[in-house]
Amino acid sequence: MTINRARTPGWWGAAATTAAGASLTVVTSIWVANGGPQDLTGGGALSATGRLLGLWASDLLLIQVLLMARIPLVERAFGQDRLARWHRVTGFTSFWLLLTHIVLITLGYASTARTNPLAQLWSMIWNFPGMLLAASGTLALVMVVVTSIRAARRRLRYESWHLLHLYAYLGAFLALPHQLWSGSDFVGSPLATAYWWGLWGIAVAAVLTYRVVLPLLRNRRHRLVVDRVVPEAHGITSVYLDGHDLHRLPARAGQFFHWRFLDGPGWTRSNPFSLSAAPSDQLRITVKDSGDGSGRVATLKRGTRVLVEGPFGKLTGESYAGGPVVLLACGIGITPLLALLGELPYAPGEATLLYRVRDDAATAFRPELDRLAAERGVRVVYLTGSRGSSWLPADRSDDLFSLAPDVRAARVFICGPEEWAAQARTAVRAAGVPAARVHTELFSW
């Protein structure tokens, strides 16, 4: 049973973007109303600039929290891939603005008091209201930023990185008392204080609603359990899941959930896995053993309870109404694209799958792909071989037009590791496919 979902209204993205821009405009207006421009031309230029950067940093920190709050309107408008990229850029921008704010405010106060800047910083931390909490929050944010640098992130398991990343919430909330108790832009303005409390209240409510309450209600309703575990290829395992009222689960082919399997220690840590079949009265995910929590999937027992958070992702067919479709998969990236092949309303001969794999042992779902080729006319091209300098295997010299002749007129879906997906997207765009018809999902974090 395939389930049809309503299309995401086009204005959702514009509304969310406008709201984010408006929040930065409002905090800048608060700084202007509190004499910021006048202070720039007087003797308090350092402190005035520091105040403005602090307001921007705090506002961006709240936007960063909202980007990952799992708000359905935002998730469906942009997709989690794009939100994760914005979250990263916003986070680093906020962090550097915060550090510059600290430096400028310290130098400004030290200049006025004619004291050593380090002594002034120490005095501010111990004597200003809320500053000790703010300093603790800053240290938490430093830890999050350091572990988010790509070189450091590659050395961490996904579960460890995710756990450390949660300290960003602690850092954000520890900064609030300092802003309201000693921030000159809020202390003297009840309206500004009310606005700031309201903004924080929205952020807290969004996190609690969509990251705690909604998943609890959804899991209570659907009560997912493992039905069976099936090996698909070397190190690749599918899990079939049963539950209640799954036809009411708002999921589409191509989306993913965060999964927790209640089979013993470690169940509190979630992992993101895509649906590998179109959602119906049963769900299926397919997992590659990557050496972290994914390895335990192959040992799951029938009846194991499962908790989920989601669905997430915008690699869906909601904007596809028929015509040529080309899907480019690499490795375990086949999973959401296989689900799409089962759901999209293409005619026989309109769908082409280019499936990049290392060797035959790593090829999953061959019988299922053969069935789709026989029953729905899907053209499946296996790109097998060692990794080359492009999205193709090292020993292939084909171009995209020879592999998918109708790609220029097609809707294109790409899923795989980040570097490979970027190369594949470049090839697709170079073939003349408009950006609006290219949909990607990266298997990275």
TrEMBL record:
Is the keyword Metal-binding assigned to this protein?
yes
Q: Name one Pfam family in it.
A: Ferric_reduct
Identify the keywords attached in UniProt to this record, alphabetized. Answer: 2Fe-2S, FAD, Flavoprotein, Iron, Iron-sulfur, Membrane, Metal-binding, Oxidoreductase, Transmembrane, Transmembrane helix
The record lists the membrane-crossing segments as 12-33, 53-73, 94-111, 131-152, 164-182, 194-214
User: What is the membrane topology here?
Assistant: Multi-pass membrane protein
Q: PANTHER family, alphabetically?
A: 1,2-PHENYLACETYL-COA EPOXIDASE, SUBUNIT E, NADH OXIDOREDUCTASE HCR
What start and end residues bound the annotated signal peptide? Answer: none
Swiss-Prot/TrEMBL cofactor(s): FAD
Q: Where in the cell is it found?
A: Membrane
Give the matching Gene3D superfamilies.
Answer: Nucleotide-binding domain of ferredoxin-NADP reductase (FNR) module, Translation factors
Q: Where is the FAD-binding FR-type domain?
A: 219-318
Which organism's genome codes for this protein? Paractinoplanes bogorensis
* Official protein name in the record: Ferredoxin reductase family protein
